[in-house]
Predict the structure of Pre-rRNA-processing protein TSR2.
Amino acid sequence: MDAQSTAPPATDAASYLDLAITLALNNWPALTLAVQSNWGGPTSADKRAWLCGAISEMLNERAETDAEDLEDVLVQVMNDEFDVVVDDESAGNVADLIMELKDQTVRGEFGAIQEMWHVWQQKSAQRSAAADMFKQVESKDEDQETDESEDEGSDVEMGDAPAVERAPRERVEPEIDDDGFTKVVSKKKR
């Protein structure tokens, strides 16, 4: 399931768990950066979607799965699929969150997941509005560049820049000591 879809949230415990996994992974900064930067190649977004499904399957098929197992999977996938070494404990935090949300779905408590969904929808709307604003600004910049390029035909004669004169460097004569040796002086002390 893609967290960016505008479909309503889940209706049963399994669907809520899938939604929770998807939201947790889509909110994980390390994975988000890896996907946005295409560190997993051009199919980075597909790899994230695959990871969501793989975690859901793992939690449904192996009841003994705990947060440590899940953290190991997250770290391994980030390393193997995205060439990212996660050493900031964020994989453990994501694993803990997913396991807590799993426990809530088992108890029939869906409020936290619904809240996460609501926050995700708000952020998506803000990102969309910001992208639209960026496009508007970008098109205005292009219009200004077009206006400026029309003015390029009338060049203004600037003249020659004034010459900059440097004072000639003084040549430092080597010092010769009483024994006839030349004293070496660093450039800084000259």
